[in-house]
Design goal:
274 residues; alpha+beta; 14-stranded mixed beta sheet; 2 helices; 43% strand; elongated; transmembrane helix; endosome; glycoprotein; Lamp2-like_luminal; Lysosome-assoc_membr_glycop
Amino acid sequence: LQMELLLLLVSLSALCVSAEQEVENLSGLSPNPDRDIFVVRENGTTCLMAEFVVKFLIPYDVLALNGIDLITEQTSVSIPRGAQIAGRCGSSESELQISWNNHAFTFRIFFSKEKRTLGSDGKAKEAEVWKINKVQLVYNTSEATHFINAYNPGKHTASTHHLSALVTPAGRSFVCSAQQTFTLISSDHQKGITVSIYDIQIQPFDIKSDFVFSEPYKCITDEREQLEQMLPLVLGLILGLIIVITISVYHFHLKLSAAQQPQLPRDRSLYKNM
């Protein structure tokens, strides 16, 4: 009886967990046709949000015309609108999984949260951050739309190693328009797969409002580009200010010089007394 009760509780628990988690592909709401929007919700609230444009450059082998040699081709792959998503939220680890073309492609991003010592000069303090610690792509070269005439087709897994990317203070979302590039090493003869992600906003932890990102944390590249865009304006304002000051000083100097010069009488008869 106790065993049956335990099994019943486990079943109810599993049913409850599956019922409490929702995943949504909201890419159709994006004004950019290439930008994807993915949401993972647990217990009726958003726990992971991701918006980005992603492109995959995947090398694969084809047989040469001589029927002996192998030639490496490359195919470009992007995530279609109807992609299926799954996710997992935790206090220190989260995951986003995206699949498409009947699971011929599965893209997974793993997130983790950790504490780091920040600062220097005796002012170091411990702060909590989150990051991407792994990126993985599972792909099947039997998918003939992208892998045309692939040699020895089959399923392969490509992953990053020792990754620490998009490091962001806890409680904030990462924002970056600039391209972020990852290199994945494939089980297909150690080929290198390039994953390019840009126009990004991601938050895998500590989302305070449903469907709303927390305060953005801009990447260094965007900050630098913003500074470069503002620099000509600032220099123009400084130059204009210098010109105004120079003209004002010169005008003041002319008036002062004129006031200090002796005044000649207008009546010419008075010149003989001078």
